[in-house]
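Q: Please design a sequence for this.
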């Protein structure tokens, strides 16, 4: 059994179309959060403790974890180096978690929020940290239960990670637009492509990171957030992209959980290439554009509202001019193509981006199914298949 991504694992050989990993291959790992839905009603149901225990028995302890709500669970991947290895790992985790959910009459649903229902009382998992969050932040905690896809990419150290985050922050609105997968919440159409990101933004420590001058500046800022009471601990610095609190990685946290394993794999490989580009800029001494946090917040709101339709501010540049999302994808591709090619990931990522541009995101998929067959069918359509 592979080790989780906070351990070191050897490189693995790739499959067809995916070259074997080399010593220079950058590591990547994925965390995915899911709704637990009752198999009969399709509504969110608070069976996390039982399902996570069953998933750990199938997958191993480190690979399945509880989340804030009792109607959620999370999977944590091993360290991966090739596209084939990553996709196999995502499929392994999703399948094992779905089988565990089925043991307790649940569906494992990759949607940014629950399409139907809400977690029943008590909504917050019975853990000391979560009760401390509930006491400090009140209703904000009980309104959560949202599901994201977090990608970790290996970097040399914190000193390299912090300035790389400065180069990455301007790309977060586009990544959100491309991964939006939560238009429905508790049986209602929110009018948003990513309602998850709107709910998550209620945390006082969530949002785009500030421009970070260096690792010392980052440490001081985190210390002040904790002292203010806006964050319980360093793990609660809920920026869209951040240096990991405990790993030599950059963690990109902006995306909704994606609807299928292929999309998750392609998105994670795109993030790996984008981090590689940012690290190149750091090593070349290129300054990051000083885009105000207010403009990044506005751009993320627009991405959450409309997904990839229309325009977004080009927040990877200093002028932030409104730009068609398709053009932004072209600009992104120019920057990441060398790193995609180096790892043999260009076709996988290119095919996914083309599919998003042609047929839309997970949010568009949910709306197509709902229009034809209703919201209960959306839950069934998204639910991870059980072999």
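A: Design:
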């Amino acid at each position: 059994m592979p080790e989780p991504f906070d351990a070191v694992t050897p490189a693995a050989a790739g499959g067809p179309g995916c070259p074997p990993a080399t010593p220079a291959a950058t590591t990547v790992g994925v965390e995915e959060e899911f709704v637990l839905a009752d198999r009969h009603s399709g509504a969110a149901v608070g069976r996390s403790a039982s399902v996570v225990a069953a998933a750990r028995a199938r997958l191993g302890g480190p690979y399945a974890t509880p989340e804030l709500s009792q109607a959620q669970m999370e999977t944590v991947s091993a360290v991966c180096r090739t596209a084939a290895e990553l996709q196999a790992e995502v499929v392994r985790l999703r399948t094992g978690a779905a089988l565990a959910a089925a043991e307790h009459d649940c569906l494992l649903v990759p949607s940014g929020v629950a399409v139907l229902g809400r977690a029943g009382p008590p909504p917050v998992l019975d853990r000391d940290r979560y009760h401390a969050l509930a006491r400090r932040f009140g209703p904000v905690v009980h309104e959560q239960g949202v599901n994201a896809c977090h990608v970790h990419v290996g970097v040399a150290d914190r000193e390299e990670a912090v300035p790389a985050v400065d180069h990455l922050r301007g790309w977060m609105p586009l990544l959100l637009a491309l991964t939006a997968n939560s238009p429905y919440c508790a049986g209602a159409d929110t009018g948003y492509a990513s309602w998850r990101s709107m709910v998550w933004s209620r945390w006082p420590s969530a949002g785009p990171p500030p421009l970070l001058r260096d690792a010392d500046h980052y440490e001081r800022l985190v210390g002040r957030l904790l002292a203010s009471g806006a964050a319980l601990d360093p793990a609660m610095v809920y920026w869209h992209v951040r240096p990991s609190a405990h790993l030599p990685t950059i963690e990109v946290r902006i995306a909704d959980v994606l609807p299928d394993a292929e999309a998750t794999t392609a998105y994670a490989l795109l993030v790996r290439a984008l981090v590689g580009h940012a690290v190149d800029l750091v090593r070349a001494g290129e300054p990051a554009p000083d885009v105000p946090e207010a403009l990044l917040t506005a751009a993320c709101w627009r991405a959450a509202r409309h997904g990839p339709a229309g325009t977004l501010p080009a927040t990877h540049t200093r002028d932030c001019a409104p730009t068609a999302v398709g053009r932004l994808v072209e600009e992104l591709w120019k920057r990441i193509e060398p790193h995609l090619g180096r790892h043999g990931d260009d076709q996988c990522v290119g095919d996914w981006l083309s599919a998003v541009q042609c047929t839309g995101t997970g949010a568009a998929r949910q709306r197509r199914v709902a229009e034809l067959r209703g919201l209960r069918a959306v839950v069934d359509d998204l639910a991870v298949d059980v072999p």
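Q: Thanks. Anything notable?
A: Residues 5-23 have pLDDT under 50 and may be disordered. DSSP finds 14 helices and eleven strands in the chain.
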